[in-house]
């Protein structure tokens, strides 16, 4: 019989954890498309069939439905400009606040009473390297899914507390 010491068992567990983590977020981490292949640029440039739910020609902000919704309502709100992520210098607080404002306006207009989750990704964990706000309204069922370990692993990249650090007094 092969004997495994406690330290070997711990080491194996750590590797299993690392492996499952990489599998769960790997596609997000490594999928950094160059700008000409960016799927959100394609949506913004109308070369994609995704229907826009919101469009403002002054602020150049658009919104559309998430193709992989995690809540009853799950919109993505993004600037036309290909800004890499939340920490890019082009992601000004004015822009961050405007993205949040559009999200709340859309949910307000629909009279949505569910719990709102308004979140950015923390680099390097993101699905698309084009700044976008996840604008979600979640039912109680959604909430139990969101508190599951699966979801926490999948979305440990979300950055809601850091919004306050970068841009205080956000909505
Ligand atoms: Zn882009
Ligand atoms: Zn995302």
UniProtKB/TrEMBL annotation:
Record flagged with keyword Cytoplasm: no
Motif stretch (Histidine triad motif): 130-134
Entry keyword Amino-acid biosynthesis: no
Alphabetical UniProt keywords: Hydrolase, Nucleotide-binding, Signal
Domain HIT: 39-145
Signal sequence, renumbered to the chain: 1-27
Alphabetized InterPro entries for the sequence: HIT-like, HIT-like_sf
GO molecular function: hydrolase activity; nucleotide binding
Origin: domain of life: Eukaryota
Protein name as catalogued: HIT domain-containing protein
Lineage of the organism: Eukaryota, Sar, Alveolata, Ciliophora, Postciliodesmatophora
């Amino acid at each position: 019989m092969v004997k495994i010491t406690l330290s070997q068992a711990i080491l194996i567990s750590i590797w299993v954890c690392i492996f499952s983590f990489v599998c769960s977020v790997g596609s997000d981490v490594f999928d950094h498309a160059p700008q000409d292949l960016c799927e959100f640029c394609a949506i913004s440039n109308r070369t994609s069939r995704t229907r826009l739910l919101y469009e403002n020609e002054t602020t150049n902000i658009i919104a559309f439905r998430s193709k992989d919704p995690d809540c009853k309502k799950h919109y993505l709100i993004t600037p036309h400009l290909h800004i890499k992520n939340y920490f890019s210098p082009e992601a000004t607080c004015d822009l961050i606040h405007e993205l949040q404002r559009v999200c709340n306006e859309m949910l307000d207009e629909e009279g949505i009473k569910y719990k709102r989750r308004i979140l950015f990704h923390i680099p390097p964990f993101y699905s698309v390297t084009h700044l976008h706000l996840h604008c979600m309204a979640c039912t109680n069922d959604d909430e139990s899914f969101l508190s599951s370990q699966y979801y926490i692993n999948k979305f440990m990249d979300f950055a809601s507390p850091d919004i306050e650090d970068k841009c205080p007094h956000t909505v």
